[in-house]
Amino acid sequence: MTSTIAVEAVDLVKRFGDFTAVDGVSFTVPTGSVLGVLGPNGAGKTTVVRMMTTLSVPTSGTARVNGFDVREQPDMVRRSMGLTGQAATVDELLTGRENLAMIGGLYGISRRALRTRSDELLAQFSLTEAGDKVVRDYSGGMRRRLDLAVSLLTSPPVLFLDEPTTGLDPHSRNELWDVLRDLVARGTTLVLTTQYLEEADQLADKIVVIDKGRIIAEGTPLQLKDQAGSASVVATLTHAHQIGPAREALAVTATEIFVDESARSLTLPAGGLADLTRVAQLLESGGFEVDDLSLSRPSLDDVFLSLTGRRTTPTDDTEETQP
Ligand SMILES: Nc1ncnc2c1ncn2[C@@H]1O[C@H](COP(=O)(O)OP(=O)(O)OP(=O)(O)O)[C@@H](O)[C@H]1O
Ligand SMILES: [Mg+2]
């Protein structure tokens, strides 16, 4: 492919009856880059991915993958891409290696090539030892890595990942991020959906934020966070009576200080880690006892609040809710 655009969405629309799940979504993803599609539950992320990967026909609009149109050349699109869906697709009762063999067989990869490729992928995803164990005994992170390995059997130039780390613990999430960075370094173009600004921030070159089927913001991670306001330092004091004096002591470094008496906390705008250190020094030299001191960055929730004026529904729900 000579094209420098690997993936393109052109005014994608999807209606289910009279409900519009995706309402005119367009974006382009340059070859070798990462697009993060960020949005809360029900925003339309999976529906966009399904249309772009030929699993669902757009009501109107179209998408191109590696230069091929999802409507006109769905077979060529499928040959150009891998997909790691939101639900784990590997078979619990088979081993990692057997899962790779099964899907590789469906792709028509020869047995010998399959063995070589499986070994490579298991090694790449730190699953060499686990490869001969049944998936039922895998951790969540191992399953997601195997999912990824399966979707990479054919070395596709474009990979779609639908919420690759939802439900993973922070350690597994970090591991998976490293794997994905490695793929990008090898030239793969990624389109990933996520509910976490941090994930998009870590991985994406560009982010589109979708809500109710529409793009409500797009830009680099930095541009988005700037829209949501700056980071802040939050200091929680041990003693309520020290709040007033602490505020005075910190006035040398910040003009705006937000005080929450009941939480015994002081919040100051911050540019980065240096501000955290400065606040720590001022509090220490003033003899203030501190329970907690942290640098907090805008969350997806803050981004949403600033973009839409409402909060995303907080959810720790990691259960699969897709049909
Ligand atoms: N097959 C379908 N029939 C009817 N409505 C659907 C169908 N698939 C999705 N929807 C609806 O479309 C909207 C977008 O769903 P979608 O699964 O794309 O959201 P999502 O952003 O992936 O959410 P999540 O973060 O929960 O995975 C939702 O309101 C959903 O209920
Ligand atoms: Mg989804």
Automatic annotation (TrEMBL):
Q: What family does this belong to? A: Belongs to the ABC transporter superfamily. Drug exporter-1 (DrugE1) (TC 3.A.1.105) family.
Q: Give the keywords, sorted.
A: Antibiotic resistance, ATP-binding, Cell membrane, Membrane, Nucleotide-binding, Translocase, Transport
The protein, known as = ATP-binding cassette domain-containing protein
Record membrane topology = Peripheral membrane protein
Classification via SMART domains? AAA
A Pfam family that this protein carries is: ABC_tran
Q: Which GO terms describe its molecular function?
A: ATP binding
Which compartment or compartments is the protein found in? Cell membrane
